Amino acid sequence: MAEIKPFKALRFHTEKAGLIDELVCPPYDIISETQRQEYLKKNPNNIIRLELPKGDDPYQTAGEILENWIDNEILKRDDEEAVYIYEEEFTINNLHTKFKGCIVRVKIEEFSKGVVLPHEETLSKAKQDRFNLMKATNCNFSQIYSLYMDSEHKITNRLDVLSEGKPENELTDKDGVTHRLWIVTDKEQINEICQDFADKKLYIADGHHRYETALNYRNYCHENKIGDGGENYVMMMLVDMEHPGLVVLPTHRLVRDLADFNAEKLINECKEYFDIEEYDHINTAEEKLKALYDEGKKAFAFYSGGNSYTLLVLKDNNITAQLLPNKSKATQQLDVTVLHTLVLEKIFGIDAENMAKQINLTYVKQFEEAIKAVNDGTAQCAFILNPTRVTEIRDVAATGEKMPQKSTYFYPKLITGLVMNQLF
User: Fold this and answer.
1) Is 134 within 8 Å of 420 (Cβ atoms)?
2) Which of 3, 64, 76 is nearest to 229 (CA)?
3) pLDDT, tens digit, 9 for 90 and up, residues 262-272
4) Which of 215, 270, 297, 335 could form an SS bridge with 292, CB 3.0 to 4.6 Å?
């Protein structure tokens, strides 16, 4: 199954680069240009210069900066191969929690082998961007986030013991998330961790584009006879799928720019498949949805302005089996499948291609952001969703199928810049 190994990470030499909390950043794809400039203003050595380069030839620029930083010891490669234990501690929705995993090199395998399993569709534009960056830098600047099954939690228990001491790095970001990193160099402990994964499958939680890019880059290296074997591996953060600190947030859907949008008509047509409940105060929507989620029901809050909203509760959880007979039960039962199939496609006519290109659909993470978009006229309506369950992610991936884009949002995101993986 999964083949993992330690590596000599490239890390910031803080004596020359600056404070670690000024050198790291969130994932590149959630950073605006304004935020990018703010990171660089605080410290010009921030990892964003490598992960999200700018200029006439941004990829060449990134390659030159990387080489310069290594030459000037802003970045230094660790002397010993190691497994890096990474923890995030945070508060979300009044819940204070944390989770821990290990950052390692993972051997790249085609999805067809069933060792590394995806669960979401990807976009070719994003993959081309990451491929160009890898060709120019030969480096992973951020880790792919993957889950594994371990019913006895043997690996997490081992990591807890190995991280009892003071971390190598600790910082709290602007969102209040505390990040900690420990370095394990003991060869016996490393061998035991590697053996623990010998029978494991890995389920990608976040980083589908980066994994497919790593696969393409490996093939590119083989075709051009370059590399020393490092190209066969990619940097991953591995976390127990049943870790109590894992948090998945929903991604809400905004509908916009439909020529014949009619909220009343939508609600009437939904009555065929949904029980309709009207409520006066939109601020109760998340609470109502959570209660239905706990009961195992499929439900959405439909909002088109004002103070009130409509709760759509699916009458029969098996209805999508009739409409999507070629899909697995795992895919049929997803909340996003129900919403996309019965409402967005069937009533609004927003098909899969439209969704992928975001012609009439926008995705937002925050409930408040969704409501604001409707009220300020950016969107015609919003569908507020419950989160996808981690077990649903596992079950869909196991079938070889993929969820629609933006089906999951693991919180918090892994920070970029604590460790980097120079391939060869």
Assistant:
1) no
2) 3
3) 999 999 999 99
4) 297
Q: What per-residue string of b and e applies to 18-38 under the rule 16 or more CB within 10 Å gives b?
A: bebbbbbbbbbeebeeeebee
Q: What are the phi and psi torsion angles at 50 (to 5°)? A: -95, -40
Instruction: For tokens 């569908």, name the residue.
Output: 383
CA neighbor of 309 nearest in space, from 278, 340, 332, 270:
278
Q: Whose structure tokens read 């600190």?
A: 245
**Which amino acid, residue 307?**
N
Q: Which two tokens stand for residue 184?
A: 């394990």
CB 255 within 8 A of CB 355: no
Give the separation between CA 332 and CA 320, rounded to whole angstroms: 6
How remote is the C-alpha of 77 from its chain's centroid? 27
pLDDT band at 388 (very low <50, low <70, confident <90, very high): very high
Q: How far from the centroid of its chain's Cα atoms is residue 204's Cα? A: 8
SS3 string, the chain, reads: CCCEECECCEEECHHHHCCHHHCCECCHHHCCHHHHHHHHHHCCCCCHHHHCCCCCCHHHHHHHHHHHHHHCCCEEECCCCEEEEEEEEEEECCEEEEEEEEEEEEECCCHHHCCEECCECCCHHHHHHHHHHHHHHCEECCCEEEEECCCCCHHHHHHHHHCCCCCCEEEECCCCCEEEEEEECCHHHHHHHHHHCCCCCEEEEECHHHHHHHHHHHHHHHHCCCCCCHHHEEEEEEEECCCCCCEEECCEEEECCCCCCCHHHHHHHHCCCEEEEEECCHHHHHHHHHHHHHCCCCEEEEECCCCCEEEEEECCCCHHHHHCCCCCHHHHCCHHHHHHHHHHHCCCCCCHHHHHHCCCEEEECCHHHHHHHHHCCCCCEEEECCCCCHHHHHHHHHHCCCECCCCCEEECCCCECCCEEECC
Digit-coded pLDDT (tens) for 218-241: 999 999 999 999 999 999 999 999
Closest residue by Cα to residue 85 from 10, 168, 153, 5: 168
- Residue 249's contacts (CB-CB under 8 Å, 6 or more residues apart) are 92, 365, 387, 409, 410, 411
Q: Looking at residue 120, what is its pLDDT?
A: 81
Read off the pTM: 0.92
